[in-house]
Write a structure and sequence with these properties.
Length: 193
Amino acid sequence: PHAVNVALHGAAAALVFLVSACVAGFMNFAATDTSSSAVANFRAREIVKSVGSRSWLITDGGADGLLLIAAKDLGHPLRVLNIREDGNETYMRYVASLFDKPRLKNLSHVGMAPLLHEWFRSDPEIDRKVAMLTMPDFFKAGGATVVPYKLVFLGEKNVEAVDPGELLRINREFWKEMLPTLRQARRQGPAAG
């Protein structure tokens, strides 16, 4: 009889645990649903593809981790600068380590805006090195025109080389492919992206 009671108690405890696990799974589905991750990962990959051959991306920090993972997955060496980390002394020391020129290293300790302004002004190939998700006006400091390209802004110093019709075609084609994914995410609700 004692062995039977132990076995019944053990079975009851296992059943309670199993029911609790199932109920918890249903109750927390929205918090653990990863379908929104697919949209965010897709967007990150598309941003990295939009960068083209450029090796720097200026961001607002919203998806830097995903962007770096996507760049690694795509085999694209990419340095990401988060413009919002301007007041973070540790981050700005890291930023200083990314530059060889003493002036740029020093300006990184002054702030992100002075650093970017000087870098864009002094680097004759800035339009071939950098893409931006935010604050594309820095390209003007380098004498480049801001060109919206898919999900990023590019700089172009030779504006005559930009074919507006071709640029419009590329952007329209891109958004024609991208919009169904975004609409699907929107239908899935706020957790989807």
